[in-house]
Each structure stands twice: as structure tokens, then as C-alpha cells.
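hey can u check if this looks right to u? its 262 residues, i copy pasted from the old doc so theres a chance i mangled smth
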Amino acid sequence: MQEEPIKEQRSRDTDSLRAACEREGCPVCTVVLEYVELSIDNWEYDGFSDVQHRYELIHSRGFCPLHTWQLAQRSNGFRLGLIYNEILTDVEQKLDRDYSKLTVADSTVSKRTSSLKKWWSRQFHRTVETPTKANPRYDQCPFCRTRSNIEQRVVSTLVQQLRSEEMRLLLSQTTGLCLVHLAQARQQAEVEEPTVSGHILACQLTCTRRVLEDYAHLCANMTIVSWMNHEATRRHPGGTAPSYVQAIPVFDEAMRGGKSRR
């Protein structure tokens, strides 16, 4: 019975990946972002009113900065205000308890123990290491966990679908996978579909070469147009020189070998 929902989800993921291949950017990123947006929509209508979910959210200390900002941009100020009021209240209570325990502990510390630690540090040149920077953990953010699960599922679906020549052709016509999802796809293929590893590299190589060609063409265009503007300004000092926008059609016509004249 559980296999049917899984098959349906795989089918939806496949359709989403095929549609994403017709758009700009990494197909996996596109699909994952769409699913995360849907998850945020569901939270706005159902998750906020779920008491159990709100309790878990308070325990995890809310959302990560990215998803908090995304929610704030969607007119969720009132919802976020209520949630973070409860979170900060809980944090305040915990800080008060910790401070009270620390005060009691400090009063019972022996001076002899403190002197022994100082002697030990001098003898063995050991100092207490202090952290130079804080690394906050956001692995408990509900949307981060949702994104991670979706990402793993979509990457796995892509690896399975790359056994099909049609899917490989679609992927080869995109700008390719981002480096993160490329690494994940290769790792997934080594575990689930070793024969697909070569297909992933071949598709990515095709995409990368095409992007490099487009980039080289763009750089050449920008360089020559910039030179044309410079020459126009030099030849017409103090006058009205052709602008950058005016120079583009002239250059494009020259690059096409005068096809527009025909």
C-alpha cells in the first residue's frame, strides 16, 4: 500500500524535472524551490495553527535566517511575531535558569582549584581555547529539513530517469546541474545506478562546453561594443557619440555577416 504513494511522488518528480529542463538554471534547484514554496504555502494555512507543530518550532528555536526572511516577505509578520515571542520567552527562562546555576556554582569554587589550573597551564604552556567565531546551527529549521528531504528524493529520481536516453537529451540541453547537485547525483549514482555515472558526466560536459561557448561569445560582444563606443567618443569629442545601446545592432549585424541586409 505504501508503494503507490511513492510511485505517484516519483512520477510527479519526473514530470517536474522534465519541465524544469526547459527552463534556465539547474533543473534540480528549480524543482526543489517549487516544492519548498509549496511547503511554505501549506505552513501558512495549516502549520501555523497546528499546536504540536508550534511546540516543535519553539523547541527548535524557529526557522533559519533565510526561511524567516522568506516568510516575512510573504506578509507573515503577525504569525512570526507570535512564534518568536514564545521562542524568546522560552529562551529568557532558560537563560535565567542557567545564570542562577552559574552563580551558585561560582560561589562554591575553591581558590585552590583555580590556582592549580593556573600552575598546570604555566607548566605545560596550555591555554584555554576560545572560539574565534560562532557557527549557529540551523539543522532544526523545519523548512531546511524539508528541503533536504526533497533534494535527496529529486536527485534520486533524476539518477533513475537518466537511464532513459530521452532524459539524458533533455538534461544535455540545459545549462547543467549546479556543482552541489552534480556532486550529489554522482554520489547517488555510485550507490544506486553505477551505470548512470558516465551519463551524468557526459551530460554535464556537454552543458558546460555550451555555456563556455556562450560566455566566450558574450565576452567578445561586450569587448567589441565597448571598443566601438570608445572609438565613437574619441572621434566625436564633445559631440553626440553613438551610445552603447545604439552600437549593439551595428555590431550584431556585423557578426551575422550582414545577413540582416539580405
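The mean pLDDT is 78.
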